[in-house]
Structures
1.
Amino acid sequence: MASQGLLSYTDSSLITIHKSFYKLPPSPLLEGTLLFKQNTSDPPLSSRIHHLCLAFCSFSCLPAKQFSSTPPLPPKALKATFLCKFRESPGLGSAPAALGKLGARRSRRAQPPGSLAHWGRRGPRARGAAAEELKLTSTSFALTGDSAHNQAMVHWSGYNSSVILILTKLYDFNLGSVTESSLWRSTDYGTTYEKLNDKVGLKTVPEYLYVNPTNKRKIMLLSDPEIESSILISSDEGATYQKYRLNFYIQSLLFHPQQEDWILAYSLDQKLYSSMDFGRRWQLILFDIHSLTLMFIDPLFYAKDYSYAHYLTCRIQECSETTKSGPFARSIDISSLVVQDEYVFIQVTSSGRASYYVSYRREPFAQIKLPKYSLPKDMHIISTDENQVFAAVQEWNQNDTYNLYISDTRGVYFTLALENVKSSRGLEGNIIIDLYEVAGIKGIFLANKKVDDQVKTYITYNKGRDWRLLQAPDTDLRGNPVNCLLPFCSLHLHLQISENPYSSGRISSKDTAPGLVVATGEDDAISWIFDEEYNIWFLDWGGALVAMKHTSMPIRHLWVSFDEGSSWDKYGFTSAPLFVDGSLVDPGVESQIMTVFGHFSLRSEWQLVKVDYKSIFSRRCNKDDFQTWHLLNQGEPCVMGERKIFKKRKPGAQCALGRDYSGTVVSEPCICADWDFECDYGYDRHGDNQCIPAFWYNPSSPSKDCSLGQSYLNSTGYRRIVSNNCTDGLREKYTAKSQQCPGKAPRGLHVVTVDGRLVAEQGHNATFIILMEEGDLQRTNIQLDFGDGIAVSYANFSPVEDGIRHVYKSAGIFQVTAYAENHLGSDTAVLFLHVVCPVEHVHLSVPFVAIRNKEVNVTAVVWPSQLGTLTYFWWFGNSTKPLITLNSSISFMFTSEGLNTITVQVAAGNALIQDSKDIAVHEYFQSQLLSFSPNLDYHNPDIPEWRQDIGKVIKRALVKVTSVPEDQILVAVFPGLPTSAELFILPHKNMTERRKGNEADLEQIAELLFNALNQNLVQFELKPGVQVIVYVTQLTLAPLVDSSTGHSSSAMLMLLSVVFVGLAVFLIYKFKRRHNFKYCSHPGVFSQHIL
């Protein structure tokens, strides 16, 4: 197993460390980040490590100094680091010299090859052996006695708190459980730790550590349920605990995002519990929940996504089966419920096509409107920041890319922002979209787009309206010119963010350090590859950067930069080399303390190294340590409708800001220009930046909610970018204009079932949805005729928005008709609904023997009998394609002799059942009805297998008594009581060509069998003491049956028909006596419609 950690955490200050090389225990309760202790025998973490790019948002990058205080490395081992700064115009403050517009090449004096000390203003200090090493203030603490523990969970309160909690565990992978654990607590940022096992109970084995996301002083521990099922609660950051017994095993927990004491718990036995006092008391609210997605929707509600796919909400204080409600009436796709900020998203798939719905601020759901022919096959919600939705949509013609769409405030109407954004799959198969939102400055995004089988990085400053490539640096680390000209060559960044707090990831930015981005990548001309990887952290509001090598080897140094990455100083942070498992930076905004987790050897105790950076900040910052700088977009000072001037530390100012610092930003609105507006829904941007209606969109058609006498906002084709703060200028020109609703006749009326199916079950609700493309919803009358003599009418669409329910009391095909009318016109829609009752059993009724070249009637008897429309699929002999009928009977002619199989499948709705029978086909045959002594009826279970075995027993008895060849005898036992059978006398299979002689032989065989039966010679023992005698039924022996026409054949067929009818009547009577029929038509069920 590689030494890189796996991620599974919910709190940025909570980290979980694994130093075992075995697979992790599957546990839905695990909070934190999973790390592995690094093995010196492991290969390097990556065989292809890219350079680091320290970038301001203008992304004009300069090569920065390598992370080394040693002499320059050979050219092939050079590490490329980019220093990227904002472009600024002359005269806009005391910022560094202007670099020109984005995309313009910046001239720079070439440096001598290998003279790396000239790259930064300060540069790493090259020191001799006698030079004093720079050291950071640090302390190390060993968790004594925990050397065997292979997992740890770490919580750092941060945010003005010095408390750190660590739970170390020994997980037995053979037993699949935690066998021992230790709880440690520090109150001095990790200088010292106290073991708290005696405070939680020496016999208690804490297994999981939870921190209240709203109040981090509240801590929860869950013990191992195999030893003791209990919960330990602390309200003072883990100083003291109270223990409470649990009568259920918790599988997953969910804390309310606002109410700090509200918790939901899902148990292993599929029950849902709630607690209103942070786990002290629990109340069972639901049970038998086979599939559950727990989500708090607002301070009062939670939502769940059942396996039978309905979105339900319930008040946590009084939740029960009777108080549940469904904000969305229709069924939804399983696990499609997504809740982000003010939005709730669901997916509904019907007829193979997915539709998406959104609820903004818990209002009624509205269908998401993508461009008409986007035809999505997959959709992911990327961001819901600033009251707007970014969504990645994979359209019908895409495989490994997604199109990026951006919505209006309500999340309903989406317009295209960028095509063919690269996607990949994570370790667990999840989809990862290469899109990154830069923190600290709104509206700036980076995306990797696939262009002609190449991946290129694009940047936008206005939330996706305009995108452009990134300019690569002018020179490499050795000072040689880099020939990378836009648009043929550009800088490519890796946009996989780190969800792991112990690693900086390939790209990161902070709200507290606006404009500074740390990223890895390469340009199209040069691949910046080296054999080392570094994690970078922001310190003290971005005033310093810390770099630590990510390696499987032990280390004792890290690097610090005070000039935004232009130069780096090497510091020692521990006296002995440490195998680093992870690092965690103080989550407070001043971020001057780091905890490094590791081991001095693979079998040593956990070592917690506290690194305090306060000593390297020489003083507090004063006004002379600051400069102003301006956010520019290709030289344009207005970004997202604002002109912003930031105050930041001067590069190289080695001073501290501290906790009480508040970043100063001077902002003023800009005059609205073209780039502040994007195309509205239904409009496409053309080459001249004009928004033109798409071919499928009718801009003159008002909303269906627009009723006569009301007004609506008629789009100009443009809409101001959400969260853009521009004013005046083009704002009035591009703002939607108020117009009177004209009133329109109904058009595009549709009637569909709520699940999109055309089949409904008798006696169950069938829910119909009426849709209208154009018209006046409030002034249009609606009538729905269910086709069974029942119809309903409504004055407008309001009562039918959630669907119209109806129960059919009989099966059949019903024509459902919807009719819409107002004073301007009318429209009609028709749906044919198949109402069925589930089929339970089918019996194939076929003759046992048939004559070649004569039609045979075959019937499928289905139970229950009143099923409505059924479809029958028939296979005869070796045919591979079925005959399909709507009738339960079919005639078929066999053209060759032998044993043939007949198979029928009966389809009713989603149900499909089958039966098969064998039929012997001959040129001619004779038959005789048989009966048995009455004792056989007592032992007759009336099942096919028993009848087949009895037929074989009778056949053997006949052969034994008469010595007739067994291939000329066939005995078929009939269903029902009294037990009866038919004896078939068949010609020898090799004698059909000598017909006349063989017919005489067949008469002799029949006479021989008849005499044996009349003399009671044919007997068999059913079981000890039960002897059964076979008789000839007192009917005349059937004459020869063959393929020739004649009176005797017809008479025999008529005689057999009479006999079979009588047997069938008795069979049905007997079958009803022995079995309970299920009928679909119930006298107590009446047709009804429910709103």
Note: The chain has six helices and 81 strands.
2.
Amino acid sequence: MWLNPDEVLLKNVLKLWVTERSNDFFLLQRRRGHGESNSRITGLLVGALDNVLDSTARVTPFRILLQVPGSQVSWIIASGAAIEEVNKHWDWLVHNLLHSLSVFENKEDVASFVKGKVKGLIAEEVQGRQAAQEDDPGKFREALLKFEVHFGLPSSEKLVTYYSCCCWKGRVPRQGFLYLSINHMAFYSFLLGKEVKFVIPWAEVTRLERVSTALMPEAIRVTTRQRQREFSMFLNLDEAFGVIGQLADIALRRLLDSKGLELDRVLQQPARITKRILEEQAIREYVLALFRLPRSENLHEVASCSVWTPHARCHTAGTLYTTDSYLCFSSREEGNLVLLIPLSEVLSIEKADSTSALPNPVIVSIRTKKAFQLIELNDRDELVENMNSRLRALHSPTPYYTFYYDTGYSDEEEIEEHVLNNIHQLNVVSQNQDQEICVCLCQSTDQVKERLWEDHFSEFGRGVHMFRTEKIQKLVAMGIPESLRGELWMIFSDASSDLGSHEGYYASLVQKSMGHNNLATEEIERDLHRSLPDHPAFQNPTGIAALRRVLTAYAHRNPKIGYCQSMNILASVLLLYAKEEDAFWLLVAVCERMLPDYFNRRVIGAQVDQSVFEELIRERLPELAEQIPDLSTLSSVSLSWFLTLFLSVLPFHSAVCVVDCFFFHGIKAIFQLGLAVLEANAAELSSSTDDGQALMILTGFLDQVGNEECPGFPSSSPAAEETSCSVAKGHTNITDLINDAYIKFGDLTVRQIEQLRCRHRIRVLQAHEDTTKENALRLVSPDVSIPPEKLADIYDLFKVIFLPSWHYCDSNRSFIERQYRLDRPQFKSLYGLLVPWPDVSNQHTDTLANRTFTLLDQDCDNLVTFRDFASWLDTLYFGELNEKIRLLYCLHIPPALTETEDDPSVMKSPLLSTNRPLYVKDYQDQLKQMLQDLAKEKEKDVEKPLPLMNQSEFIQFCKTLYSMFHGDPEENELFQAIATVTSLVLQIGEVGHRGKIAGSEANSQEGSTAAGGVDARKGSRSSATADNEWTVSYAQILASLLTEQALVNFFEKPLDLSAKITQAKESQYQQRKENVPADSSG
């Protein structure tokens, strides 16, 4: 390949290159030791030196140098792995450049001219290719060549990036390179003649960790189901660890749950994934989580700047993030200052005059007659132009915080409008009932809070674009006053922007979803009366109807989620503090932005956060983790904390304060509060003796978490009802608990949570895959006689056959939809590995494999399930003699034998051996024995009679038997036996055929038409075929085979499935070693 010209000051100081061809301007050289059979030691030393010095000569041992006469400086302009490749470049130089160079008087011009030509060739070669997208295309092209040469992966396997590192084998490090592609991570090392290379598919990675030992201060541990690998000595370990985690996460989401998890469109197209894309996606995921933006938002610009904060009378430094519909700002220290400005609220974005005090200022004006000043923006002109272009592209937006409903309703809609406008009356009624308790305390506390919030609004602004600082965090921890709760929830979640931009959307959803019955609506109806059953608002039809509309409308909007348990509790609380339409958009914000992947069919997001929570316990509460090594109990208890935001475990008014924090901080607030709860009970939990006691400790603690003000309605917890008016002695105040969580665990950031989620999603998905495997084996095991451990091995072989093709296929089906199913080529590959008889004829084996696939493909979707495959294999290895014969019989008649199958050689070549004598017993004795066996089999076949087999099909049946006997120790006896049985069946068929013809002639004389009723087959063969060919039944063939003891012994002989599985694994390993190398190095 052509290389970007690189200077070589000393052309061959160590005599490591041997010149093969030369002229006045170019040298073609070969690396010393390469291709020399008599210089093994030299080759080993040079190879080791190349590997240590990161030389490309190990992969490209040929090169072409540009040399200027009289100069000590040369330039490498081309290299190659084979002499043929380099010779092509040499010939091009000689024919196209060499004669032109002689006309240059200045030799320096020669070098400039040739280098320019080579750079032009490279530009043409890489245009539109992957290397052109990298920061250093030249180096990446070299790494890509090494990757292709070393591992021989399919051409569609795209290299993403690579790192120099060490791979440890025990206490011995192996210096080499780690290559990361879209489906694999691969390592290559060559040192002192020892080559180490292996490939780990991302689908096999179960765990990623950063570890530290005496030998490896910082290392990355990659765990698969078979072994562990440690990699260290990275130049940038943080970057490498992040990229490895991203690629494993993306591959597993794409392979194992592509429809159940949210995956960006760019990541669903592996060919587009580059290192730069991964970096951008990592930032985007962080921005979406930090500002709780819609998943559809695309990140455009990231710029360092400072924003003027009037409350602090100074500029605050941080980072500006721009997306499709938002301007977002976060201070350098996460959480100190957050600013979110929807573009729908922006009137103008303008540049101001730059001064020494205000360099590169930008003014953002919004509809509420406020303006924000940004300074110190690099590339200000381009940034402002891009933001203005997106601003112009927006349609005229609805002014912020304008709530309305369509007035053109039908009679049915008028009823709905009445409910929409009066839903707050539910709250008023319930509040009036509850205010009989501690009314003075409630009024005074709310009044104080309202004044504090009004003061805050006047200083920091009101609306989505308010300055969010640590001060507002303290106000939220105190509990938002009920009069402001709905408004602030809409602001913090930015559900108000969705509401304002979707006029009439909710009302139309309600109308469309009315009268629809499906699984989601049935589940909703079942849970309606379980949602806050003690609250007066949901003890009457009006409240229940509003809840039904919100849940049904959301299920109609997002059928992928539909309805999940705990959504009813959340929607009930939202309805208490917000209008019905507002509650709907709050539910949208929670389910689709704030708790991504929580409400899918397998609750993956919640399980990922439980796994993250376990790691945070080990990190933040090490003493508790030491006392309770198995944290699965605590994580299972805490699952409801995350799914219901503590609403199902805390007294109602205390839980609502937690919801306040959740809308302000996001999921970080639930992590912090969960850690605070465990920390407050650490001593009791450490001394607990079993899981039940730990559960009682946490339940009792949470039941007694109260509030210094009166709750809105009695808690569902009996223990909490006794103390609903005040915090009794010894009870915990929710505000104190929240503040304690902020103080002790406030350093937990959104960035840390997102990084942990990426890693732990790998564990959760692989755990689901293990569970799926267990379920599949549990489903199949009762129907087969294969031992469980062998069935598990067959499952693994099945999966190994499936995954490589899935990596590179363009199918629109998800992995889950195709899981445990093989298409025809995949099935034939596994068939050849596990079929018990020898592979004598490739053509015949291929024919049988095709027929077997057709037979097992019962639903005609061109896919065979694992269950059907296991059942077929069970028949071959553990079935009774009659079951095996029945299977072979079915393979030689329709539907397994299709009309389009063309095998003329079967009819033309004799199947019976011509050099062996044919011994046939007395026909009458054979017939008597056959009739006796036929009578026994008749009862078995009466329920499911098999079609008859004609003459040509029987000949192919015999051919299959011959191929099965080849190589058997009793081969001669078996051939003799099958010859006897074949002659017997041929005679039976002829006798039956003559009888059928005679009967047909008799019937024709009486004027009746021959119906061919003797042939009971359900296929499409004509009556003419039935008349011209004789037929035999399965029972006749089975009875004939039973007369030969050699054949009975052969089919009843035990077969060693274990040995066949071992051979299949070895064969798969060799195939992957040659084509897609396995993780197999020692």
Note: The CA atoms of residues 287 and 554 lie 25 Å apart.
3.
Amino acid sequence: MARQGAKHLKESSIRVDSTSLRYPTTELVAPDPDRDGFSSYSRSSRWHHQHGGTEVDTEEEYSRKYVASQSSVFHRSSTKSFPRALLWRVLDNRYVLDLAPCDLTIPDEISPASIELHRVRIRFPSPIKPSCVTFTEGYGDDLITIDVLTESLALYTFAFNSRTFTAEWSRRPLAEWCHVQESAHFNLRPPHYMIALPQGSLVFALLDGGLMKLDRSQPLADDYMEQMFSDGSYLASIKGMFIWGSGDRLRGHPNVSANLVVSMVADPTSSTLITASVSNVLKLWSLETLTSLNAYDIVNDTTRAQQPANNKQLLGIEPTTLISLIKVSDTTGYVVTYCPLGDDCFKLWRLDVVTNEETTTKATLTDVLGVPLRPHTPDENAIWMIPDFVLDYSGRVRNGGALDLWILWKSNKSSKIHALFDIPTEKESKSALTWESVGCSAIESVTGGNGFVYSANEDDTERFMRHILQPGVFSPAILETVLPIYERHYSMLTKHDGNEDVYEPELSLRERVTKVVGAAVSLQPADTNDGMDYESYNRDLQQQWSRFERLCVELSKQGYEALSLTRDPSTRAVVLVRATTVSIVRVCAGLEYAEVAGPSNTISLRDGSVSSASTAGYQDVVLLRALDVFTKSLPQPVISDFLVALTEDALTPPNFSTGDRMTTIYDSCLNEQISDSAIDMLHKRLYSITDLEEALDACYSELVSLTGTSNFGRPSLNTRRHLTRVGTELLSSAIHDSTVSTYQALIDVLLFLIVFAVDVSEEFNADHITLYDKFLRVFKTTAFLKQLTGTILDTPSGSQRAQSLSEGDLLSNSVNKLELSKNSMDRNSFVRGGTVLQFLYSRFSLGLGCACATDLINSGGSLGVGKAVEYSMSYWSIADLPHAAIAAAAALVASGYVDESMPLLQFLSVDGLGCYARGRVYLESGHFDKAATFFRKSTTELAAQPLTELTALCLREFAGMDAAGMSIPVLGSGVMRFSSHVADLLYRKAAYSHATDFVKLALDMREPEVDDVETDKLFTKAFRAALSGALYDDAYVAMTNISEDKLRRDLLTEFINTLCTSGQSLRLCDYAFLELLPEVEAILEQNAQSTIDLHVPSAPNYYKILYSWRTEHGNYRGAASAIYEYVQRLRCGLTRASSDTHENAEFNTFDIEVTQGYLVLVNTLACIDDKPEPWFLARRAHLDAGPVESPLKKAKISVLATEYGRQKRVLVKLSDVEREYNEELARMEAILNRQLVAIDA
């Protein structure tokens, strides 16, 4: 049987304790009526749980902070309001009401950068009563009124607006946002629960069976009016309050009437109230006259309707959902009622409301179908109940019906949603209806122990960490709670052992978990004394990981309880709220429908009988489930090896035919690994498939439908819509669920094709080679999506923003001009702890399919999220995969997530753009050799390829790391400009040798029309790269080729200074310099004269360098002048400490420098052949008048050291040198003699 357009549904969930809902929190404290002057009729204890003293139990703390006892979503009616959806939760033993925005999208009129979402947490002095939290918006366009009734019977009213949740809380007087009141009626007649009317009034169901309406002009006004409803049963309940009238009291509940109302719903367009009591009575009330209009049995059982209340089988007294109303016009609506007694059946009614001229309202209910709608429990393994259900109206007739009924099944273990679609509004319009089952969220299925997906080359730690940290499985709050519990009982790490680093915040959660669990096992020597016992170590480690996972599973089960089922009136999205999760129903995408398909029940509208059917009998479903069983029957190592080979085949450009590649994979991984029994069992499972090729084509059609759009791969730039954090997480979670299921199914299909094509091909009648190629292409895309949705971003591995380039970078400006995406991340879309896909949606808020997905969520009805998933998966598709991978890698690198971008390189293409992207990633990760290699491969193609809009979108994030400079585009502008751009990139990361190579390439590939100015810029770039990389020969060549004199002299100065400061001054003599020789000598002489302190040992001695330079070039007279001036400065004390000028002068190394300098000077003068004696010109410091009294004292200099270079040159002869040399020797002899006398003494 072929599957013809069957609609399969599934939940997509996010955890409310995830990072997406961690908004800045406003903590408010509700006033205490007793303390603030209000009288209280209930003396229940206040704030009875203590937090101090004893050690806090981490599990109890988690339950108190994160597990809700009551929760739902309030949807505002205005589509322009933001936030529209508020998730409210009752926490901390019912003492705290938590309010958090949970919209999926941001309206067009609001700029995401202008707002920051906040949550509000209100603490009450006494616990909140069950089912006593209501929301209305009837007092103003932007006003949200919240009413809360506590156990002390104090009614709190809060008036908030949109700014409360989109801006920081501003301190206001209590009277402006909170009001507390207590009803005098509640002392005698306690309330049971309450609802809010659309007009802003409240209706209370009282324990004595009565109803009370509270009217008020404004939410915070003191002028309110309390009115009691009246009818015959109410009067009977009044009698029951006295001793002589207790006939309608409930057995075991002496204060509760059998007419107690446990479910109420108000008509939003008319003054009609519908109630259901524990005695199964359905009543219509007028909210104007507060009187009963009509009464019915809840399932239209006329016999039971006539029975007295105390003779009927009664319902439970807890408030529950027994009525759901949907209006289709001002006077007509449809009501579904539910009776949990007996056969558990629903009843569909038509509500007709007529108001006559005297404004008297008449309301009646009419049975539409005449037969009950009986649901069927999800399974027989638990006790199931229906706590909530929702009726939806599509507005048009589809398949003979216009109503949809969503019901919530709940057991002590799990919950399930069933749906009944296209319910007719007239009798005999259809013959039967079928209950559809909604697949559970991946959170429940994965934590149930079925979450492992095959992956290649993983050890136990990686496998468990991938599973535990899989998005949506366990929230950070769960892991943070389990970590100390596990450590206290199993781990060897404790604080007193000096391992406090486990608790340090700089360690990521992944590192802490890995460290604690790994410390529970130690590697011991083998019993045979032959090395270490790795087998026992791996076994024990796997056991510890299983324990840690089991703790996480048990803790997460606290949040499985389903609390409410709601429908967004605007988008018609169906929302399920559990204790710790929020789910939205969506259409299945990809091949995940095979997991959801299962048994269903059909209701005959003629006699109400129920028959069973199953969607699991479709050929493609049978095929996928049979292949799944076959794959799981193989050993895990075989599947791992097969996955490695399959991934390599999908991501590597093919060099052989498809058949040869399939044979190679079979021989290397599967040959002799598959038993005959496994093949036989697969044959039996496939026996019911009449046409195997048709079943495979059906599977492929589901995948092709995701990528078949005509404008496939094009970004949408004409919208300002954005996703919120919750929206990006929910969409990422849904895509992840669909991708994982599709990925696993594709492994099964490809394994099947290879096995049957190579091993038993004679029994395979399809073109397996063509099918293998088609499925392999989809497998590549699915693997990429799995990487995006399965990788969590925590702390960036690199710098948050890269260092800017110089103004010479050409690529940046050409891409920046297109302005295809935001420069900054939307703080309302992504926070640390989200997935890569969430991160990408926040970076590319106007592209990558995000805008169209937002539109689908807003307008797609209850299945809009599913349509958004399908579109998003189609965007990241085969044809656009290389560009998407480049954009993703670029965005990650630009934000510092360099390590997380590395796995995406395998999805890049092998063309020039892909090689360039690889080079950028390797460059940021510090692999300069690999980066240079890929840059070289990309040069020829990108130099000739013009810059397109799609290419610019891919490179936008890379360009955002660079500075905007010239306006000439790099792509398509020739090898010279592209190579120059690459050189800038390499120079920024200190890869100087590679930068020099690319500048050389740019110089070699100069176009003839390039002028001298641009050529000098290239030579300057080459000079700086070579000089920074100690490539002095290349720097010298680049400098000497510069044509502008001033620039060349500046670079020559830089060249000389760099050589001298780096200890390479001798290399100066290796270069010819040619016409630059005079400039070299002038630069060295200027540096020598400008030296202030000659004491610095690490500083170059330019006097000695100048002496060596002049000696090398035969200028002995100039060399003698240089060394003489150096000796003069040393001898005259220009560079000595002040203490050396007194009698206590000590012998030091500079005295030896002076004598050595004189000796060098004498030897240098010996090389000059002058008569009668050698001479030279030099600067000499003038001495003050008067002879030097003692050779121990130094001559005083009449000029400062900085002015020494301004002195005139004087003629110095060899005899002058010898005289000064003898004076210095005498001074040194005197110093030494004085020291010897001191020693003798």
Note: The longest helix spans residues 725-758.
